[in-house]
Amino acid sequence: MDILLVGCGKMGGAMLRRWLDAMPARFAAVNRSGRALPPGTEHATGADALNGRRFDAIVIAVKPQQIPDALPAYTGLLAEDGCYVSIAAGFSAASIGKIVGDKPVVRIMPNLPALIGRSVNGLYANAACGEAHRELANQLARATGTAVWLDSEDELDRLTAVAGSGPGYVFEITRSYVAAAEAMGFSPETARALVLETMGGAVEMATRSQDDVTDLRNSVMSKKGTTEAGINALRRDGLLDTLLEDTIRAAYDRAVELR
Ligand SMILES: NC(=O)c1ccc[n+]([C@@H]2O[C@H](COP(=O)([O-])OP(=O)(O)OC[C@H]3O[C@@H](n4cnc5c(N)ncnc54)[C@H](OP(=O)(O)O)[C@@H]3O)[C@@H](O)[C@H]2O)c1
Asked: What pLDDT was estimated at residue 33?
């Protein structure tokens, strides 16, 4: 099986590294800026360099806004029974169809922990996809993390807002938590270690537990204790809930704009 990756930046590059380890396929990547590609990848400077070749899948991993400019050059390189796989946020299968015609398109919405095999992947296949295309997309997703099949692209956009963009929220919340720890007098290194270990331990515990997270939160809040005092401040005026709802809604609205 031959797979072409168009766009080998942060996300495409992260997924490619996992695919090379996990999949018995040959990978070529379009790498215009000449950055180092993982060993085993065929380097291509552009569509012209691949003239005459046919790929079983073309993975679209450029920015959504770059697709209309980038993709047309590659449409002649798809094998007769091949499919497009897009990891671009928002950009719909119908919009891809306007460029490539009535072809099988699977959208995979990953997130950056693909780098460590922990991507949360949402998948959606258009009506032109057959079982083989879905199976290939499933393998591509599973090599980087989990695979959740969705029935509509709206659901995929909602997953994008929660999970695709999610690591960014977590890094921002972590940054703020570390800054608050520094404000308590800890060095940047100690503050970072304290916060990351605390977050990692709490998330791991919640993952392993059958309990609802509200019950877990309540279990660490003793009456008039320190945690209760902190949580009361954190939940003051319900701002946290509103902030996170607004965060996810803004990402969803942007995905809708990109369709
Ligand atoms: N980053 C994330 O956390 C994340 C999460 C979920 C989904 N995604 C999706 O993943 C896609 C890529 O995002 P990214 O963060 O990896 O962006 P990125 O780091 O900017 O990578 C985009 C890549 O596309 C290449 N490119 C641009 N125009 C091209 C063209 N005409 N022909 C060939 N290659 C071209 C760029 O190559 P040059 O550097 O050579 O210009 C660059 O390597 C986006 O559609 C995004 O929605 C990203």
From this structure: 84
**By C-alpha distance, which of 80, 130, 122 is closest to 105?**
130
Domains of the chain: 2-164 (3.40.50.720), 166-258 (1.10.3730.10)
114 CB under 6 A from ligand 1? Answer: no
Encode 72-106: b = buried (16+ Cβ within 10 Å), e = exposed. Answer: eebeebbeeebbbbbbbbbbbbebbeebbeebbbb
CA-64 nearest atom, ligand 1: 45
CA of 32 relative to ligand 1 center, distance in Å: 11
Give the pair of three-digit tokens for residue 68: 């209309």
Does 5 sit in the ligand 1 pocket, CB within 6 Å? no
Tokens of 90: 């928002």
Whole-number Å distance between alpha carbons of 16 and 9: 10
Question: pLDDT by residue (tens digit) across 230-247?
Answer: 999 999 988 999 999 999
Of all protein residues, the one whose alpha carbon is nearest to atom 39 of ligand 1 is 33
Nearest atom within ligand 1 for CA of residue 88? 45
Q: What is the DSSP track for 31-51?
A: -TT-PPPPTTEEEESSSGGGT
- Structural contact between residues 124 and 93, judged by C-beta atoms closer than 8 angstroms: yes
* CB-ligand 1 contact for 251 (6 Å cutoff): no
Contact by Cβ (8 Å): 253, 154: no
Phi-psi region of 64 (alpha: psi -120 to 50; beta: other; left: phi over 0): alpha
Q: What is the pLDDT of residues 35-84, one digit of tens each?
A: 889 999 999 999 999 988 999 999 999 999 999 999 999 999 999 999 99
